């Protein structure tokens, strides 16, 4: 340790082997006698720059000036001064001669002249970049002259280097000395190593070595002249060879010309202070300088200024030099978002800039910031991430999604904002394929089961659509347990017509996952009911689904008759129905009027009507979205009938333990969602049980029937009554109560009409011990108008009981 400290402080060492950096290829140019090489750290491989200066005599003036430069660079710290990392001095014995080399290790930089050629900027973009670079060098010179009372005395293109973020930095401190103009007793040279500076870069008083005049001049007089030389070399594109060339102002921008001339004034006291140059010159007032300056002092801006700036930034970035945006603005923006100083609209600008990167650069420069933002508690940030997930979701690895992203995204499933719940749901279309089976079964399906009973009808609809889309990513046991129950028990019985339509289309798109028993006993009975649905779109889809599933059963029948029992194949059947609309979101959860419990079937899943919401977030208004055809349907070519169904683990996904088939006793046709039913009702009284039993009695009906009145399908009630065979399959399609002019019969019971989902269509309980009504009891009477379902009988009529 002591040897290392002696080498750093004293500028000496034991050799280049002790340098903890690897020396790479040199650049073609460097200041003075220095050699500028690329390098890397031996510890972590990070890039660095290594400057070396060699001499045969340890007392050589160049080496003495080099040691001065090492000392000054180590002690002067400023954002626009080259950052010092390490230094050492090595001695190499070559026969009788000794070679001494000084090494300085700094942050990775490139000579300005080479970087300008590499960028190849032209016109306005070149001038904007030069303005930004000159702005930085002027700040560094002003800091040395005004704050530190130091004179650089060597400002030119060769003394400027460019970082990886395209920032300009000042170095070459070999001649750097204190300004002793306030010392009246000083008589000797103020700049000990001024002989290193070329005469073309020296002002007249320095050429004459008039130290008295120099000490009477302002501290910035010499460096203001040097800054003028830098400006000339920049815009002329040539290295200054003699002082007279500075009078050629053809290439100098007109807005910068007056200040350029004041910097090169022949009178030292009249030369422009570099700090005043930045304040007065209109040349430095451009979009690039203003944008970067705003980003650098972002913490000093209020929320209104930030919001306005970041909303304009995406369009502004297109007008700025692309390399500067990607290497300078993008890191600043990512850092501001990561540490919370940037507003949510900055995310859109970050993703737009990131889209200009290659895939590898995007994963290394943008994705880490995005992953960290998922942990943000700022709801606006979370909304922005979910809204733009299609721009970066594919770049996320499965491990990152499963371990770092999904735990934070999942909090949106239970958010109080319907808008955020919907965005979270839609994001699963991209994230779910990257989740492990354990996460899907134990977490994701649990959230989706709750969203299928969400208060927002469109969220329920889109949940069904999502399940249809991710069915191919579920294992066989999970599909058997979840799909049919989610699509038939919940979706097909929803009060919202697009939800019922989505359930039908989801069944069709996943038809390859069901065997013939499930189709015949669990799917078709529920789908056939919807052929008389009040909504025409639902009826149309129901007929299509019936045709498709009957075709599958027919194919199975034909195979069994021909002796082929390998199972059914549903190749191409789902695509024939044009189910691409299933895979697009039905509509926004904020596009529906009224309370969720009062929703009427007002739109179809693929309609284009724009609706207004008065739901939980009334400030948002959005229209029905156009279905997307880009997502692949679940494959329907798999033959599953002869494959054993794997035993699924204990379910925690909200669907519960579900029967994979229908028991012979039909004792429980449960849906597996009982643990999250939104409404728990008491058991029915004996009177109500008798009403429900009366509803199940068969009623003789004539051939010609009048059209039943339109009624909305009610969701499954939590009221549980003793079941007979197949009562669950048909209860949902009981006919509505016909209107009657007579006073309806009122049953006094502890269960109110609102609590009983079947009260509106139930038959009255028998009040006598008479036998059940039959067609033979009113043979002499004129046939009444045919009605479907249980009938209320006018007890006051003479033809009554």
Automatic annotation (TrEMBL):
Keyword Glycoprotein tagged: no
Biased amino acid composition, Low complexity: 603-617, 698-712, 758-772
Amino acid composition bias (Basic and acidic residues), ranges on this chain: 660-673
One annotated GO molecular function: protein kinase activity
Key words of the record: Kinase, Transferase
Superkingdom of origin: Eukaryota
Region of interest (Disordered), residue spans: 597-622, 634-727, 757-801
Annotated InterPro entries: ARM-like, ARM-type_fold, CIK-Related_Protein, Kinase-like_dom_sf, Prot_kinase_dom
Keyword Kinase: yes
All residue ranges annotated as the Protein kinase domain in the record: 2-284
PANTHER family reported for this sequence: N-TERMINAL KINASE-LIKE PROTEIN, SCY1-RELATED S/T PROTEIN KINASE-LIKE
Protein name: Probable inactive serine/threonine-protein kinase scy1 isoform X1
Gene: LOC115748110
